[in-house]
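haha ok so turns out i had the wrong file open the whole time. this is the CORRECT one, sorry everyone. sequence first:
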Amino acid sequence: MHPEGCEKVAGGRSDAKTTGQEGELPQPNGMPNVKPSRLRPTSYSRMTSSNDSTATNDDPVSVTPIKRIRGNLCLPGDKSISHRAAMIASIAHGESTLENFSSAKDCTATLECLQALGVRVEKDGSTITIFGTGPSGLQKPAQILDAQNSGTTMRLLSGLLAGQPFETTITGDDSLLSRPMKRVAEPLRMMGAEVELEPNGCAPLRIKGHRPLRAVEYQLPIASAQIKSAVLLAGLAADGSTIVEEPAPTRDHTERLLREFGAPIELNGSRIKVQGGVELTSRTLFLPGDVSSAAFFIAAAVSLPGSDLLIRDVGLNPTRTAFLSALRTLGADILVSDERVEGGEPVGSLRVRSDKLEAPRSLEISGAVVSNLIDELPLLGFLVASLGYEMTLRDAGELRVKESDRIAATVTNLARMGAHAEERADGWHIKGGSELHGTSLTAFGDHRIAMSCAVAALSAQGPSQIAGAANSVAVSLPEFWSLLESVAE
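then structure:
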């Protein structure tokens, strides 16, 4: 059942009346809740396009500065959790129901790959039902699996397929085919799977699985939740206990979900151990709203004085909330309420108000925290520049091998807006004091760059046009533009 306040979400927004202890947003100075009649649909105007199929320069979005952000939001389910829940449910016994499943195109790619592997998947709105095959019930696909733009799909599915006694090939779009895959192939080879890559170490991946795999003790060369998860999923098909040691904490959704489905998981500091050969049991889960998607609306509210925004039933996993901590160091007023646990994950509501920002400050990000901020770093750069603050980012070279080179994309767009931004090998330096102005920007085919540009454009001087922005957001949040309009004033 959906938690109260997010029931029957249409486009991620709840129209349900909220009261009392369920995370009510008190209305300051008698401010009424934002209603559809108060929206400004001209704030974001889709421009005429001859090609509506891809996130390219043919699908720009015009963004006009607004006064503030106000209202309530409920967001589609967390993308990272949705991927993992679907995969684990597919090898469990029985029928699993996943409520508030992510609407992201990436997660649709995961479901389509599972269906190609013989898993029955039914969809009813945002509820997904998966009929698990058990650990040995996946079938050799009749075609090459297409992970589209989703690195999570490709890497985690590789771990699942390493323990299946058949051959599979996984491909993706041009962006995904340029991303490094040797880092996931190496541990799976150690466990006994045959994994072939292109000469450049990229996909397509050709996997010849084996069951049982060899249990291993593997030390991750970099902090990566995707590699960790691939090894843990492969470990389910191993002949003993598989141990993964990570150099710095990463998101732990896989570990939490494996526990929920009945796998014995042991944690000892930075070491995670999973037992092979276990039988998983189906579950009914409500998936919390995606905190990485929430970050864009939070940043917009922080950047615009007078904003007051409540986001309900969002995931508050401590490995995912470093962005909130970074904003608090800048003086942002973010309150958490209605905290609870749903399906092993911390969930709550976030209220964001921008009236208590302190004087301009500088922000330095480096070291272990980078892995838990990796998705939000471009957004943080755009926000810091919008506020006129200074930011130094180091140890974030992983940003260069995402859907785009996010270091170059961030610095290029900020420079166009008038910020003093310097690109560095593993990060950037943004000098404070500049006022951003509206201009022509580009998403570089990257959903997070598109949404980060939009946030900065909301508080810039004059309108902006973001090339490639209309469709690129579908990778993680197809509802982004309509949700943004729904809380814009």
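The longest strand covers residues 333-342.
again sry for the mixup
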